[in-house]
Amino acid sequence: MIERLTFFLDLTSDENPRAVEFWRGVTGYELSAPRGDADEFATLLPPAGDDHLRVQRVGDGASGTHLDLHVSDLSAAVEHAVGCGAVLVARDDHAVLRSPGGYRFCLVDAAASASSAPTVWPAGHRSRVDQLCLDVGPSAHAEECAFWAALTGWPVRQTPRAEFARLAVPMALGARVLIQRLEHDEGEVRGHLDIATDDREAEVRRLVALGAEPLHEGPVWTAMRAPAGPPVCVTGRDPVTGGIG
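^ thats the sequence. predicted structure below, dont judge the formating
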């Protein structure tokens, strides 16, 4: 049983300092003391509620994201994931796996979950980093949707926009997973984080002041290039419920 979701930003050594500073500004959260054998891990700490956003300094490749699923029985969860089509990459006190489309995720021991509240900014609007969006090429989309539904036990539900489907994560977890079908295949599945806000224009202006650059304007979202690390989207959704409008 999945008890909690945690989003990870995997940041190359050269991008890590600037990206961490950016996401501290995005969230308004404090940064924990570093941990790990090489001080490679840290957590963005909300003022109340459990954390759901962490950072990791990685040595090779490009910056990206991964997802941690907190489970009540690690061995059973690993066996189940492999049976659903995941590839086991490594296993010690947690398990590192890849989805059929190549997206990396971890299974870790369960922890209690009490959702953090949105941050209220001086201008009066609210925002919260609440969603991981999986970016999936068309050839892998059906298999990836089926995999995540089987892995979690949560159905994948189509949204009004044909390119988006939503994993029905229980609202109590305070974290959401969206699956986006790209127009073209672009290699392995990757992911980016979405910010829910009740004033998209104000939130975009705030991120621009932090160094981000708007790339594309959609009906309810603004895709942005972060000053370092993976891209981010600002979405016009309720920062508590995740709902649109």
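Residues 119-235 form a domain with the 2,3-Dihydroxybiphenyl 1,2-Dioxygenase; domain 1 fold (CATH 3.10.180.10).
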